[in-house]
Amino acid sequence: MSRPQAAYYPVYLSLAERLVVVIGGGSIAERKVAGLLPSGARVRVVALELTPELARLAGSGEIEHRARDYRPGDLEGAFLALAEPGGAVRDEAFSTEAEARGIFANVEDVVECCSFIAPSIVRRGDLVIAIDLRPGAGPGGSSPAATRAGVGTGVRGATGTRRPFSGTPGTSGTRVRGTAAPLV
C-alpha cells in the first residue's frame, strides 16, 4: 500500500485498556511489546514462535499469544497494529486489513505499509524526546546516529542535571562526524 510522502503529525497515544495487535514474535516484536505494556495496552501477539521473553510474558498472562502466522481477520477489535517485516505479500495484506478497519498500522522499516511511523524515543526522568529518523527529516538525514547527535550530546533532566544522550543505555554520549552542540 503506497502512501504519498508528507510531514507527520507527532502524537502520543493513550493505549490503556485498548487492544494492540503485534504480528511477529522476534526481537522487533519483543521491543514493541516492552514499550506497550507500561502504557496499559492489552497486547495480543500473533506468531508461530516467540523470543524467550515474549514466551515468558505469554506464559504469565501478561500478553495474549496466538501461535500461528498472521491471517486476515487478526486485527479485528484492535485499536493499533504493529508488525515485524514479514515479506511483501504478508506486509501488504496486513496494511490493507488495517486500512479497511480504520486501524493505524506500522510495519517496522516498511514505510509504504505504514499509516504512521514510530519515532526513536529517549527517556530521561520526566523528559521524553521523540526523534524522527526518516531520511531528510532531521539534521542527520538518513543516518540515525547523526540525527541523534544532532539533537545534542546531552539533555537536561527534570532536576536540571546534565544527562548523557545516547541511543544505547549506559553509554556516555554519541559522537558522529564532529561534535554537536548540547540541547539545554
Q: In what range is the share of β-strand residues?
A: 15-25%
Side by side, the strands of the main sheet go 3-2-1-4-5
Distance between the termini: 40 Å
Task: Characterize the main sheet.
Answer: 5 strands, parallel
Textual characterization of the structure:
The chain is α/β, with parallel strands linked by helices. It folds into two domains: 19-113, 3-Layer(aba) Sandwich (Rossmann fold); 119-184, no CATH class. The chain is built from four helices and nine strands; from the N terminus they run βαβαββαβββαββ. It has helices at 27-36, 52-59, 88-101, 144-151; strands spanning 19-23, 42-46, 64-66, 80-83, 104-107, 120-124, 127-131, 154-156, 162-164. The strands form three sheets. It has a five-stranded parallel sheet, with helices on both faces. The chain has a two-stranded antiparallel sheet with strand order 6-7. Mean pLDDT is 80; it is low at 165-184.
List keywords for this structure.
20% strand, 184 residues, Rossmann fold, two-stranded antiparallel sheet, alpha/beta
